[in-house]
Design brief:
Length: about 475
């Protein structure tokens, strides 16, 4: 038997095939574009996701003969996106993505509505799904009137695979329509957003079967046996399954386009006033909390484009030994910020520039700014009493030893770095597909990766970095006051 994990990312789709023991066999990838028709807008055509999936599957069939033994599929997707379908299941408009901020006014109104924070367990951020539909109601009333179903990106792939409207708890928790504590759609929250229960997909846990692969797809993919499609997960919950973060004390920091600090929770302990997200985990009876910054490696990529270097060139020039904090300071709010500020309008800045400033100075300042932004999330999570006994570092930015040492020092915590291999959202999705298809226990399938090394804080620089972090926070206060 083999199992497939599909990671529907913002910039591309990745399909990972694993064997019956969960060991990766191979993967395929396809890229697609994001459209930005106006400032602050971010959209994608769901047809691009289907084309990417079919191309990835075609290559996988040709490359890995064991694909013919497929028994289970799990889908992980970028959260919060609004895919609107009419009564025939046809897409009405491009999907409005998680990093689209056009609905900030609608989000603010919903967030102030009685009972919304209490039931959803979260602040209503502009990137969440409910305010997107309010924006559509106000600005595209004809589209809103024809909207029969609203699906998140992963749920749209589930629909394509099964023919059924079905979504999992972890992804649905980021809509502001779900009662996150009870793990069910809330009529009160739906009414606040002028939506109805009939417009929502059926809910299942991420480890439960969502349906079977449609017969016509099975024939097209060369499969003769029934294939179970799991409920799946939002991308961060799937990543938690990929690195085995199920229990209290297990956590990870992800240095991707956005920066995420996630802690698994054994119970439901919302704290919306901290701007920490409190969502259902992909496994029944579990939740997780996370702080999110919108521009992590995106900040480094931005600088790399400006100076005509690759991000790896910039970080390699710094060596591996962390330098003391410099006079140059960078606020990493290129696209606004979530945790802890909940401010879609704030923007980044450099302060302390001089004629002597070098590329290396700017690179160090960017890495420090991101580390301090993640420290904000650490402080917010600490306010919820989340335990972080072991923090695993993942994401593209974790390839920089300098950055990991810096973050470890700023956190005052060791960071555990997995051996090279699979441990992200695609693996987590494949594990969910395996559990749904076989009935295996999540605890037996979702295990931590082998650790290659543990990065320790530089205790000799702890005080100077603590001082630099407090200056960073003061700089933010000044910028916010000026704006």
């Amino acid at each position: 038997m083999t199992f497939l994990g599909i990671d529907l990312g913002t910039s591309g789709l990745r399909a990972l095939l694993v064997d019956g023991s969960g060991t990766p066999i191979g993967s395929t990838e396809r890229a697609y574009d994001v459209s930005h028709p106006r400032a602050g807008w971010s959209e994608q055509d769901p047809a691009d996701w289907i084309e990417a999936l079919e191309q990835a599957i075609s290559e996988m069939r040709e490359t890995y003969p064991s694909f013919a033994e497929l028994r289970g599929v799990g889908v992980a997707g970028h959260m919060h996106g609004a895919t609107l379908l009419d009564e025939n299941g046809d897409v009405l408009r491009p999907c409005i993505l998680w990093n689209d901020t056009r609905s900030h006014a609608e989000a603010a109104i919903l967030d102030k509505t009685d009972g919304v924070r209490e039931l959803s367990g979260n602040i209503v951020f502009p990137g969440f799904t409910a305010p997107k539909l309010e924006w559509v109601r106000h600005n595209e009333p004809e589209i809103f009137a024809r909207t029969s179903k609203v699906l998140l990106p992963a749920a749209y792939l589930n629909y394509y695979l099964t023919g059924d409207y079905v979504a999992d708890m972890s992804d649905s928790a980021g809509t502001s329509w779900l009662d996150v504590g009870k793990r069910q759609w809330s009529n009160t929250l739906l009414e606040a957003g002028h939506m109805g229960p009939d417009q929502m997909p059926r809910l299942v846990e991420g480890t439960q079967p969502a349906g079977e692969l449609r017969p016509e797809l099975a024939r097209s993919w060369g499969l003769n046996n029934p294939v179970i499609i799991a409920g799946g997960a939002g991308d961060n919950a799937a990543a938690a399954c990929g690195i085995g973060a199920l229990n209290e004390g297990q956590s990870f920091v992800s240095l991707g386009t956005s920066g995420v600090l996630l802690a698994a929770r054994d119970g439901y302990r919302p704290a919306p006033e901290t701007a920490v997200h409190t969502f259902c985990h992909a496994v029944p009876g579990r939740w997780y909390q996370m702080g999110v910054m919108l521009s992590a490696t995106d900040s480094l990529n931005w600088l790399a484009r400006l100076v005509g270097k690759s991000p790896s060139d910039l970080t390699r020039a710094l060596g591996e030994q962390v330098s003391p904090p410099g006079q140059l300071r960078f606020l990493p709010y290129l696209s606004g910020e979530r945790t802890p500020h909940n401010d879609a309008e704030i923007r980044g800045s450099f302060t302390g520039l001089s004629t002597g400033t070098t590329k290396e100075d700017m690179t160090r300042a960017v890495l420090e700014g991101v580390a301090f932004g993640l420290r904000d999330s650490l402080e917010a999570l600490a306010a919820t009493d989340a335990q972080m006994n072991e923090v695993i570092a993942i994401g593209g930015g974790s390839a920089s030893k300098y950055w990991l040492q810096l973050i470890s020092t700023v956190f005052g915590l060791p960071l555990r770095v997995p051996v090279s291999g699979e441990f992200g959202a695609a693996l987590g999705a494949a594990r969910l597909g395996m559990i749904a298809a076989t009935g295996a226990s999540p605890a037996d399938v979702i295990s931590p990766p082998d650790i290659a090394t543990e990065v320790q804080p530089d205790v000799q620089q702890a005080d100077v970095y603590e001082e630099a972090y407090q200056k960073f926070r003061a700089s933010f206060a000044m910028i916010r006051a000026a704006q």
